[in-house]
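Two records follow; treat each independently.
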Amino acid sequence: MGVRVHLAVVADRVDDAAWRSIYADARRVAAAWTPQPIAAAWRRIGAEKVVQYTTDVERPDGLHIVGDAVSLTTAERFVFPSTLVPAFSRDRAQSPGDGDVLVAVARSRRGVPTGLGWWELFGDKTQGLPYHTLVVALGLLVEHRLPATAVVYGDLSTRDAETARRRLAELLGERVELPVVADPARLRGRLAAEIDGDELDVAVRGLAPVHALAESIAADLLGVMRSTSVESQVRHELVRSIRAQVHATELQERISQWEPVRAREAIARATSSCELRLTAAAWDAIETADLAELAFMLAAARAHTGGWELHHALRALLENPTLREL
């Protein structure tokens, strides 16, 4: 169960030069997108390794995107590959053929053999979080450049599709149509070229936009975050509790006997144990923090006892020093 975005491409029809051009556009779109996308990367803190979030989303093999830098909500990783290679595919057939990939996808979803060799470059869950629209836009970019050879589909709402289309058109500086699955007339027309009768109606219903699922899931998750607003009484009480814990356990006095790297390693272990992943900027600040700040951050990381609300409240405190002020 979840909100997924799929991108199917008949890769054997796409030459290297065409994909290089598409990838260059994808890089430009991702770089200009707001909110900025983020990727996950390893970082060493003394002898410990932690996963951090960074706005540097490009790797040698492509763009890696797991969330956005404003809400810091994340879901599954999407890779927009720099080259079309089997490592990024879910091979569905042996021959590239000359058919419409949209028809092949529709039939494949019903378990009907298609004979068309297409790869699924995307297929994971965004859960409808803010980076969902960027993922849809990147899929639409490929569909736009490779009509009938690529199609973006999945748990797309009409609003997702229109927002992705509008922003992609602005960034490319050219006219871009809606994803075909979000345009009822085009969707039915293309499918009707090879499918008819009841099968056509089933295919259209199976690919048409969702109207509530993605948006409701995202609203639920973001609503939880808003309930732990950094301006709320909850945050003030949490800061007081953490500072009281630092005082009661004489944590600052104890870590003053440590080498600074030992305190940072303790924070790394505490955040890793509860999967409290921070941004590169937060770890930069931890690397240069004074004794009082290190004590507070270690106590905050150790205060995680589970629960979505507490998780995001603690991460907000660790990310932004101004929120620790009472």
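The next record belongs to a different protein.
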Amino acid sequence: MKRFRLFAAGLTLGLSAGAVSLAASATPAVAAAPATVAQHAAGEVALPAAPAICGINSGFFTAWHSGCTNPWKLACTEGNSGTIPFDPVSTSNGCSTRVWIYQEAVRAGYNLCLNPDSSTGALDKAYTYVWISGNAEDC
């Protein structure tokens, strides 16, 4: 009898957790704004336009530290690339071409394509490498 009560209690608890999980995943979809940044990895996902948290420096890709301090800049020369020396909280593209940022220096892992004259807003992943493209089209 005691085993049956424990089994019933466990079953009830499991079903309750499943109901909470289903309720949490039933969030309605929201239409995204036009993308200024495209994310590529397991699939292609367009991120909505993001406000420039720290500003856009014309002629440079800029990675920003917390509080928009000590920016790291890379000149907008096609083929220019570099390792970002810290985990940026935000980046901006002041170039007239696309800029790609990557999780790894070998252009691997998650990557983001930044449209010309755009900003990522707050980043949710650590990006460590940047490459300046020669393509002036939006991502």
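Discussion point: The domain at 35-132 is CATH 2.60.20 (Gamma-B Crystallin; domain 1). How would you locate this feature using only the token line?
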